[in-house]
Design goal:
Elements (H helix, E strand, L loop, with lengths): L11 H18 L14 E6 L5 H12 L3 E6 L11 H10 L4 E6 L4 H8 L6 E7 L5 H15 L6 E5 L6 H12 L3 E5 L15 E3 L2 H4 L5 E4 L15 H8 L3 H4 L7 E3 L12 H4 L6 H20 L7
Parallel strand pairs: 1-2, 1-3, 3-4, 5-6, 5-8, 6-7, 8-9
Helix pairs in contact: 1-5, 1-11, 2-11, 5-6, 5-11
Bound molecules: phosphoric acid mono(formamide)ester (CP).
């Protein structure tokens, strides 16, 4: 694997290999006081973030450090991007300075793909840490890792992705990855927050959350992305919460084994009740923990495994 840009088109064999490596790393490090492995000693990983992040940026930094890579964080707000430098020039500068891998988050869909084209010549790997409303592949991989831990195989598991699918790169990456791993995905949300062309995706669609919950193995609540809704938010926040929020009452409709996920950051009380987010069914903290091991596995497959340059 040379880059990780999307789960759309990602070979399920490769995805499973990354998940298996993450699992192995998690068990290797379990209970260890010192987490460092020597695997990426001498390699340089740079995170380049043009949008805010807590989970993705921090877990990539920890992942790189636990693999002994040198990790450097660049945020657009404190770099020469603020003086007008382009994404291309910024990326070429980082590669010239010695980056083996650039992890990029950018508001424009397709930015990570463009970066991988510009960095083909220096041979720098690129990881998409979220590009616009397009994809967030490592989030989908960590979601799959969490679901595998809780449910075992994903084959024929029914997973509901609920809410603002229209603006969600997390949803898009999960739709492709979960279906490639054999799960059935149902998108649940108001018609205004489902993407145009949804019929072409490997999913079924529902507008009735209460009708779907009794038959699912997992429910993935999405953040309502008000910052991407330039024309306003319809339905209103109150209407949305009543129809699509995962309340305590609604949680009772789920089967006992069903897992509750949320990629974060959560709007408690809007998309999900606090009591549900903190309940035993919730795997939200595990998602964050698994994010570190999955990102370690991604860096391993990009920079250290036999197929790294393929
Ligand atoms: N899930 C996710 O991408 O969170 P951050 O925006 O905090 O990285």
């Amino acid at each position: 694997m040379k880059h990780l840009l999307a789960t759309d088109g990602l070979d399920p064999v490769v995805a499973t290999a990354v998940l298996d490596t993450a699992d192995e790393l998690k068990h290797t490090l379990l209970g260890r006081e010192v987490k460092k492995l020597p695997t990426l000693r001498g390699r340089t990983v740079i995170t380049l973030f043009y949008e805010n992040s807590t989970r993705t940026r921090v877990s990539f930094e920890i992942a790189g450090k636990w693999m002994s890579a040198d990790v450097i964080n660049v945020s657009a707000s404190s770099s020469s991007v603020n003086k007008g430098e382009s994404l291309r020039d910024t990326a070429l500068t980082l590669a010239a300075a010695g980056a083996d891998c650039v992890i990029v988050r950018h508001p424009a869909s397709g930015a990570a793909q463009r970066l991988s084209e510009w960095l083909a010549e220096p041979g720098t790997s690129v990881v998409n840490a979220g590009d616009g409303t397009h994809e967030h592949p490592t989030q989908a991989l960590l979601d799959a890792a969490t679901l595998r831990e809780r449910l075992g195989s994903l084959k024929d598991r029914r997973i509901a992705i609920v809410g603002d699918v229209l603006h969600s790169r997390v949803a898009r990456s999960n739709i492709h990855l979960l279906s490639a791993l054999g799960a059935e995905v149902v998108l649940v949300g108001p018609p205004t927050l489902l993407p145009y062309g949804v019929e072409s995706l490997p999913v079924t669609v529902s507008h009735d959350l209460d009708a779907e919950l009794p038959a699912v193995d997992a429910v993935m609540m999405l953040r309502v992305q008000a910052e991407r809704m330039h024309g306003g938010f319809f339905p209103s926040a109150r209407e949305y919460s009543i129809a699509y929020g995962l309340s305590e009452k609604r949680q009772k409709l789920l089967p006992d084994h069903a897992v509750v996920l949320h990629p974060g950051p959560m709007l408690r009380g809007m998309e999900i009740a606090s009591a549900v987010a903190d309940s035993p069914a919730s795997a939200i903290t595990e998602q964050v923990r698994n994010g570190v091991h999955v990102r370690m596995a991604v860096l391993y497959h990009l920079l250290a495994s036999e197929g790294a340059a393929a």
